[in-house]
Amino acid sequence: MATASREDRDRRRLGLTLVALLLVALNLRPALTSVSPVLQRIGESLALSPAMLGLLTTLPVLCLGLAAPVAPRAARRLGAERAVLAALLVLALALLVRPYTGTPGLFAGTALAGGCIGVLGVLLPGLVKRDFPERVSAMTGLYTMTLCLGAATAAGATEPLRLILGEAWRGALALWLIPALAAAVIWGLQPRAPAAATRHAGPRTRLMRDSLAWQVTLFMGSQSALAYSVFGWLPTILADRGLAPVTAGLALSCSILVQLISALAAPALGARMRDQRAVSAGVMALVMIGVAGCIFAPLASVWLWIAILGLGQGGSFAMGLTLIAVRARDADTAADLSAMAQGVGYMLAAAGPLLVGLLHEAFGGWRAVGVALCLIAAASMILGLGAGRRAWVGGTDAA
């Protein structure tokens, strides 16, 4: 009876942990994707130049990378659970501050929100590895699917919220602190997990000198650069090609929604295979096909390419997170690899939209941009073949 009772408690604890993890994942993109629908109104309200608006969209992605190394240190000092709770509370504060404190507060709040999301994004793969060691791929798929849902919801709901509230844009942005507070409450209610025994003694893996760790990192970085380039520029590209601006924005929302399918399916498929090479390279091939179709194919077929692009990008981000978890021996190594992969990865991702803008300005069109994005996708396919092989960081083949 005591054993059955203990098992029931463990199941309830894991169930609450699952709900809390998914609520945290839901908050990892709204702070970013809620800005673009009202970007023009922000610029008009605060008299911001196009360059300043470009910085506003790039800043949170840059801060995702800059804050990533902070996460493992915070976890060691506070514990992973307290570090997540603190990041959620600061995220909610940043979302409250940024609409109502003028231009300095807008930029400071946006940077702080990006940093909090960077910390959360690094900590979650290690917690998944710790609490769900036998279901890493399935949990990563659910986590990524929820993240995409949060991104799509914020992108699609911010402008309607602005119209309902009858404000210029401030209330619509501030409302996204509510999901962050809800996640903080649920996260704080979960019982603390028992401490896990250390599986491997000896010195910590020097990830910066590990070739497999770099392959995982560069795969994460290259697919993130493509993702943020598409997110930042796809509506403009399609509008320049002849779609109505509203339709072009809808195309981006549809692409994000399609990601829900592959975000869940790609890790599940990878878990059924001996390694993740085929899935990692395959989803990047879909991204390449989708990008090329959106830029080069006849406009009448654009919805086909939008769907393919969404499938590729949902799967590529999910596989990036999955590779962090499955290439690490334990939760501590997963947290360190997550910090490296997402720290460097989001620094690269911040350069992606900037590169698109520079190429467009230099060549006066989108063909050079299309070629560059396809080359990045091809490089990411090669990196996926390396990062997806069955091995652990540190040079040891997995069992």
Written overview of the protein:
This protein is mainly alpha-helical. It has one domain (2-197, 207-394): Growth Hormone, Chain: A (Up-down Bundle), CATH 1.20.1250. Helix content is 80%, strand content 1%. It has 16 helices and 2 strands. Strands 1-2 form a two-stranded antiparallel ribbon. A hairpin with a 3-residue loop joins β1 (391-392) and β2 (396-397). The chain starts with a helix and ends with a strand. Residues 195-204 have low confidence and may be disordered. The chain crosses the membrane at residues 49-71, 83-100, 106-128, 140-157, 169-190, 211-231, 243-266, 278-299, 305-326, 338-359, 365-385. This is MFS transporter. GO terms for molecular function: transmembrane transporter activity. Keywords: Membrane, Transmembrane, Transmembrane helix. It holds the Pfam family MFS_1.
Count every beta strand, where a strand is a DSSP E run of 2 or more residues: 2
Structural class assignment: mainly alpha
Side-by-side strand order of the widest sheet: 1-2
What's the multimeric state? single chain
Q: Rg from C-alpha positions?
A: 21 Å
